[in-house]
Amino acid sequence: MDQATAQEFADGWVRAWNAHDLEAVLSHFAEDVTFRSPVAAHLLEGSAGVVHGKAALRAYWAEGLDRIPDLRFEVVGLYFGVDSLVINYRNQKGGLVNEVLIFDGSLVIEGHGTYLGADPHPSGTR
Hints:
This protein is an alpha+beta fold. It is built from four helices and six strands.
């Protein structure tokens, strides 16, 4: 991962999320991806916040988009490592979020949604 690759990924990622184009977002994720998020714990009963596989991730994010019709992200900063990328962004509520992504080649194999603050509904879902 380098700055140019990180920027290109983040530009496409935020564009796809802001267009609510779930398939474009998912195109960067491996079939056997694992994603962890406190929002998943809220939306997916019994998941403990862990989503396994691209099909399950599609269902989770589709539910999120249904519940947050005004979803919008603004990238604040990017942090990249050897095989990782952290996208620091502000959501439609004004909350700061970090998406931590681990790559195998060009695909995300592991992701973590992390939120700042004590808001029990940091993504805006109810």
